[in-house]
Amino acid sequence: MDNLLLFETTHFYAIQARDYRVPGYVIIYSKSECDSLAGFDAGQGAELMQCLVLAERIVQQLLTPERIYILKFGEALPRIHFHVVPRTARIGLAFEQQSSNQPPYNGARLVDWLWQQHASLGYGDEELTDFIKQAREVAQQSGLGNTG
Question: What are residue 70's phi and psi, to 5 degrees?
Fold first, then answer.
């Protein structure tokens, strides 16, 4: 799993998350050191929105999750980046069993739990590699940017 790149555009790139073993956990990074959305011009803002839409479309099409969370924090890495996090039935069930939470879930708590428990979900390299391959195909079909 050498290359995690799903697609890239002039100002952004999207990867399968390196630190979270969850297929479809996508992170979209700005190529610039900008730490605020207000620092983008209109073209960059439009391009970012296209990237977010494409990432969500990829995750929805390939995984059909029950919910997709899109998050921006900028604590550990101030440069603009977004987490696109799928809540699949598998993740929701594990969250219920390990945390005693029931639907409707608090998305922030679920993502925090996922950060701590992602390895226990048992996703293997093959599942991650398959997601990356398929995501690149969907991205290429979209015509937005380049794929890895």
Answer: -125, 120
This prediction's pTM: 0.94
From the list 45, 7, 18, 14, the residue with the least C-alpha distance to 28 is: 14
Give the Cα separation of 90 and 97 in Å (integer): 11
Residues sharing a CB contact under 8 Å with residue 44, sequence separation 6 or more, in sequence order: 11
Number of domains in the chain: 1
The CATH number of whichever domain residue 48 belongs to comes to 3.30.428.10
Domain extent at residue 31: 5-86+123-142
Q: Walk along the chain (148 residues) and give the pLDDT tens digit of each residue.
A: 359 999 999 999 999 999 999 999 999 999 999 999 999 999 999 999 999 999 999 999 999 999 999 999 988 888 999 999 999 999 999 999 998 888 999 999 999 999 999 999 999 999 999 999 999 999 999 988 787 6
